[in-house]
User: Fold this.
Amino acid sequence: MFWLTTPDKREIAYVSPGYETIWGRTRAAVYAAPQSWMDAIHADDRERIAQATSASQTVGTYDEQYRIVRPDGSIRWIRDRAFPVRDASGQVVRVAGVAEDVTEKRQLEAQLRQAQKMEAIGQLAGGVAHDFNNLLTVINGYSELLLDAIGDRADLREPLEEIRKAGERSASLTRQLLAFSRQQVLAPKILDVNEVVHDTEKMLRRLIGEHVRLTTVLQRTLASVKADRGQLGHVFLNLAVNARDAMPHGGALTIETRDVDLTEGFAVGRPGVAPGRHVALAVTDSGIGMSEEVKRHLFEPFFTTKDPGRGTGLGLAVVHGFVKQSGGCIEVSSEPGAGTRFTIYLPGIDARVGPDAGAAAAGMEPAVGTETILLIEDDDAVRALTRRVLRRCGYTVLDASGGTEGLRMAAAHRAPIHLLITDVVMPGIPGRMVAEQIGGSHPETKVLYISGHTNDDVVRTGVLHDAVHFIQKPFAPAAIVHKVREMLSS
Assistant:
């Protein structure tokens, strides 16, 4: 919008039609009352702009950003620039300017800054989680081995159980860090969201307590989704716990599912979201609600409104990380005193839900064998633990501290190597390249990848493919020996 005034601002000589579009007021009104221009500026910016107007406009250095309040109460950001117009003698006779609505530009800049901040924190969190996972693999692994070895000695069992429990809680925290940073490894399956709701409903009722009324409103015929079942269950638990804490004196918690078609317009402002068929999962509570300030920081890691010691501030960051990693998005509506509604949109597919292949290993054959395994792991303590566990099960284990040593060992070994267990991220040659080169000389070798994060193209997207076998650190001794036996027997 272009404008032209007298130097003393008592008269507005011209404003272009853009004024009516941006300010939401008529040009006739500002011509009749020039002060209404200043009156429309947000009260917190008005004094600063008044000073800049008198000091800068007639010398050509005026370039300011401020907020205006439109008649409907909405706020827009304006960038306003001005320069003096002089007559032949050099005297300022007019001030000319151009004002533009930069609200959307500022919003995009804020989103970019937030994304950069979250990316930096995510990289830090992923790195910390990776190092912790190596340590926790050792702590939890040896705890389990000692518990198996001591039998019924209560004097030793109790402290070891406490060590194991602390290790498991720590492992849970590192999983949350990886989930927030989108470096967790998901094992997506074709799911019926309604089934996941039913499976977790009993646990939810215990979590929220009798003072909160839980209601489910589930669309009978629902599109399937492809997601990690365990992580989707954690989403329910996180949202339910937050809802319970927002209703200290009781209330209502409602879980709804339905099919929706997301429009192009909806997807445009949400990076990573494609228009089309989605399953909407809504969790609504009648609690205390949230202010706009709280909503702005809602998904930031370690942000919490709970009292010290009552939460890590990672719950919603984890939910957000899982939803984004699954190709969906999450919307929040809330007002103080009016409750909160989280709506998660996951891409819908027509594939049928198959049988649950994740049933526990009841009746699984003993996890022992005599095959030869090449173990490549750059962390000495993790390698020593894994070697000990596998040798106890009868396997012949060749172990190397890195890719170069592992390749040399494989080249020198003339007999079959039945299984390669390799860390994904290692100094020098990464795990995938090692596996490809060993496969050239030992085509019989199957590959099991292990890692504390997903910073490698084996699982760079954080999503497992059917052809990739992977176990996430920290892993329990029982978990890796059963995985090894499963792969060797397949």
Observations:
- The CA atoms of residues 140 and 165 lie 9 Å apart.
- The mean pLDDT is 84.
